[in-house]
């Protein structure tokens, strides 16, 4: 009997979108070392696929992820030594460095290591009923990887400390108000909303998407004037590969009567 796949892929090169689903619904998609290894392998292959411009992650069943699998972590523990098991930090670094735009579609529980992974995405769309939290403090930890990703997410310190230090969960609606996720939508609308958003993003020029991501992550921790100089260099680099002024007339025509996100540059149509 073949071993169950812990990561399910749905890849549409025509749309430019890849869906990755964590497939341990019986464990609320807890991240075992085996699941993390499969996920890293999937992301490394997708990042080199130039036809994919948007990667979406979600969880099978009723939850995104309940965090690290504690039984699995204990088996791989080396006491005070560092665990070499493809930890969440590797996932966050990989998600941040992918040239594609990454979206987390979050429903149900998103706890501990699951929250760290969501924080590694560029965008996060949550069901209003989703439950975010860091329960590590309750069992005698503080949330390694989840902590730096939380405190670098732009969430106000007092709010971030509330999540880290209390062990209490917050809803998707509360996470949106806090700025922890991009948007919260009714649970029944989550997947249709994310599917449309992913298609929309994937219709954009991949060079522009990649440079937008490079600029944001390079400049976020810089002093403002240094960020402006860096931005000029990134923008100059981008223009070697694409011309943002190639279809001014078509773009302006598409915006008449109010802003529209439906415009697609001529060179992107049919690609």
Describe, in plain words, how this protein is organized in 3D.
- The protein is of the alpha/beta class and 271 residues long.
- It contains twelve helices and nine strands.
- It has helices at residues 33-47, 70-75, 88-97, 113-119, 136-139, 146-151, 157-166, 172-178, 190-202, 206-219, 224-238, 248-254; strands at 7-12, 17-22, 54-59, 101-106, 109-111, 123-127, 131-133, 170-171, 183-185.
- The strands form two sheets. It has a six-stranded mixed β-sheet, sandwiched between helices. It has a three-stranded mixed β-sheet with strand order 5-7-8.
- Helix 1 (33-47) links the parallel strand 2 and strand 3 (54-59).
Overall SS class: alpha/beta
At the third CATH level, what is the topology name of the largest domain?
A: 2-enoyl-CoA Hydratase, Chain A, domain 1
Mean pLDDT comes to 90
**Biggest sheet: strand arrangement:** 1-2-3-4-6-9
What coarse outline follows from CA principal-axis ratios? globular
SSE sequence, one letter per element: EEHEHHEEHEEHHHEHEHHHH
């Amino acid at each position: 009997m073949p071993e169950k796949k812990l990561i399910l892929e749905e890849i549409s090169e025509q749309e430019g979108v890849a869906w990755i689903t964590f497939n341990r619904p019986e464990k609320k998609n807890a991240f075992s070392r085996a699941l993390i290894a499969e996920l890293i392998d999937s992301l490394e292959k997708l990042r080199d696929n130039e036809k994919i411009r948007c990667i979406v992650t979600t969880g099978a069943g009723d939850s995104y992820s309940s965090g690290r699998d504690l039984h699995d972590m204990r088996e791989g523990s080396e006491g005070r030594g560092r665990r070499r098991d493809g930890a969440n930090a590797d996932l966050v670094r990989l998600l941040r460095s992918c040239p594609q735009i990454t979206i987390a579609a979050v429903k149900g529980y998103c706890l501990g290591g699951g929250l760290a992974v969501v924080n590694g995405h560029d965008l996060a769309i949550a069901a209003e009923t989703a439950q975010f939290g860091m329960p590590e403090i309750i069992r005698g930890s503080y949330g390694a990887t989840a902590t730096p990703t939380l405190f670098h997410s732009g969430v106000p310190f007092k709010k971030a400390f509330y999540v880290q230090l209390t062990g209490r969960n917050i809803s998707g609606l509360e996470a949106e108000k806090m700025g922890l996720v991009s948007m919260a939508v009714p649970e029944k609308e989550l997947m249709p909303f994310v599917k449309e958003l992913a298609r929309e993003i994937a219709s954009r020029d991949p060079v522009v998407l990649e440079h937008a991501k490079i600029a944001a992550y390079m400049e976020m921790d810089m002093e403002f004037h240094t960020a402006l100089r860096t931005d000029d260099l990134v923008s100059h680099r981008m223009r070697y590969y694409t011309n943002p002024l190639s279809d001014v007339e078509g773009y302006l025509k598409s915006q008449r009567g109010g802003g529209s996100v439906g415009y697609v540059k001529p060179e992107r149509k049919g690609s």
